[in-house]
Write a structure and sequence with these properties.
By secondary structure, the protein is mostly helical. It is 59% helix and 4% strand. The protein contains 18 helices and five strands. The protein has a three-stranded antiparallel β-sheet with strand order 3-4-5, covered by helices on one side. It has a two-stranded antiparallel ribbon with strand order 1-2. Strand 1 and strand 2 form a beta hairpin. Helix 9 packs across helix 10.
């Protein structure tokens, strides 16, 4: 075998003849392209789940900003600490037993439709091909479910009680729902088709692509039960304008930043739920999911902006931020099985579901500081039901590989309704069994003094702006002629002259001369003797 090779750089001259002995030439090894590409697809899928899981975890920063901006300044440290513990406690619990209850050993001899078994503390993950990426992705989801509850009981829940229910929710309540809907063994699951079987529910089972029901209904209804049992914040129900002024959040900038982070993280939440990027048409489905997610959130926001202007007479920023989240929750279940025009309608209706449920729980005297139930619980229910109304056969085939006419016959809507009833019943019953005993023995709620003073001072040693007065409020001692009165016995007043303002500022060490002094934030009122009468100075 001979060939000619050029020795010059231009390849135009100086050709050399090179010959090989055929007897000494060996054939190249055969390349199995299908096997190599399969390996590449597997690596791509794992990387996709990790990257989108990072986005879902980043949502914790969004929740932290949103909650910190929604509570009063005296409780910001507390709510941020709770978000930190959501991630930390949730990780350990989901590692030891949460993942087992969610998935366990799927298809094993002990597998059942109610709860997962086996693989405790990931003990079966003992080789390089173990799906650790799957554990990480679902842990990020579990932390989200627990964080939702923190908004419902903000500003009056004891920190130790918070630790208890975080462990219970991430380790048991939430994983059981995951098993029902997302495990291949779950009795509600659309993936329960191993060994040629069909889903336990006729045809498609419950379709919840990214967690309107699994994550948001679970977190939202657990929060509703907790808020109902723990009761409203002290002084929450009264004249509307005074209540809104008294309980107004500390920073709308933080709220806006938080919702922006959550919206970004939602693309990891929804797009990442394909659980793949290189396999089949997964990345195409993810692209469509990104579009439907965006359209639903945007439409919900626009409708709420118009509603607030028409009904309230002004554009309510906080109202619209919550509507954005409601639109995102509403599309989460059906983001892969509906068309863009349907996503627009789902977001529009989701906005009104949020508004209606927000007003409803207030009429029932339920105090939900962040509207966690209207945003997550009520909108999550709507998101599940919307699949049975707006889902299409072609999209279900593409996303789940199931080909039937369940949408046309109405069977899919029935399946979705069964899923709602099962999830809500489980969450409400188990949450009541968790929160009621803690409240009954006085373990769930902080004391009146701590709630009035602020949980930052009571639980976290934060000196705050009025450290001396805070310590006096905590110990009940006097400080240079100041006496502490309970918050419920005094009303905020403005000092009538500069001399009194200056004196109050010097004693309170926080308010500037020339401004109204209020001391509500640490939960005390300072009574100073005037020549003619006693003037209470309220700390805000």
């Amino acid at each position: 075998v001979c060939l000619y090779a050029a020795t010059s750089s231009d390849g135009q001259s100086d050709f050399v003849k090179v010959c090989f002995d055929a007897a000494n030439v060996t054939s190249a090894p055969e390349i199995n392209l299908s096997q190599d590409f399969s390996r590449i697809d597997g690596v791509t899928d794992q990387m996709w789940m990790l990257i989108t899981g990072f986005f879902v975890f980043w949502m914790q920063a969004g929740f932290a900003m949103l909650e910190a901006g929604s509570v009063r300044p005296k409780n910001t440290n507390n709510i941020l600490f709770k978000n930190l513990m959501d991630c930390s406690l949730g990780a350990i619990c989901f590692w030891i037993f949460g993942y087992t209850f969610a998935f366990g050993e799927e298809g094993g001899t002990a597998a059942n439709g109610f709860i997962g078994t086996g693989n405790w503390a990931l003990k079966n993950f003992d080789d390089v091909d173990a799906p650790y990426h799957k554990w990480y992705f679902h842990w990020a989801f579990a932390s989200t479910a627990a964080t939702i509850v923190s908004g419902s009981v903000a500003e009056r829940c004891r920190l130790e009680a918070y630790f208890v229910y975080t462990v219970f929710i991430t380790g048991f309540i939430y994983p059981v729902v995951v098993h029902w809907v997302w495990s291949a063994d779950g009795f509600l699951s659309a993936f329960n088709i191993q060994d040629g079987r069909q889903p336990d529910l006729p045809e498609n089972g419950v379709i919840d692509f990214a967690g309107s029901g699994v994550v948001h209904v679970t977190g939202g209804f657990a929060g509703l039960v907790a808020a109902t049992i723990i009761g409203p914040r002290r002084g929450f129900f009264g004249h509307r304008s005074s209540v809104e002024a008294k309980f107004k959040g500390s920073n709308e900038l933080l709220c806006s930043l938080g919702v922006s982070i959550l919206w970004l993280g939602w693309y990891g939440f929804n797009c990442g739920s394909t659980l793949a990027a290189g396999t089949n048409n997964a990345i195409i489905i993810s692209s469509k999911v990104a579009a439907t997610t965006t359209i639903s959130a945007a439409m919900s926001t626009i409708v709420c902006a118009a509603f607030s202007k028409l009904v309230k007479g002004y554009y309510d920023l906080t109202f619209c931020l919550n509507a954005t989240l409601a639109g995102l929750v509403s599309i989460t279940a059906g983001c892969s099985v509906v068309e863009p025009w349907a996503a627009m309608l789902i977001g529009m209706i989701g906005c009104f579901v949020y508004i209606g449920s927000s007003y409803t729980i207030k009429n029932f005297r339920i105090d939900d500081p962040l509207d966690a139930f209207p945003v997550h619980g009520a909108s999550g229910v709507w998101g599940l039901l919307a699949v049975g109304i707006f889902g299409t056969r072609s999209n279900i085939i593409r996303s789940y590989g199931l080909d039937n006419d369940a949408i046309v016959t109405g069977n899919q809507f029935i399946n979705q309704l069964v899923g709602v009833v099962c999830i809500v019943s489980w969450v409400v019953i188990t949450s009541w069994m968790l929160f009621y005993p803690m409240n009954y023995v006085g373990f769930l709620r902080t004391s009146e003094k701590e709630e009035t003073m602020g949980l930052d001072v009571a639980h976290h040693g934060v000196p705050w702006r009025h450290k001396t007065l805070a310590v006096s409020a905590m110990t009940g001692t006097r400080d240079k002629g100041l006496s502490i009165a309970g918050e419920a016995k005094v009303q905020p007043v403005s000092l009538p002259n500069i001399s009194n303002m200056r004196a109050a500022w010097q004693s309170g060490r926080g308010s500037r001369p020339g401004s109204t002094v209020s001391i509500a934030g640490i939960g005390a009122a300072v009574t100073r003797q005037d020549k003619k009468r006693t003037k209470p100075i309220f700390i805000e």
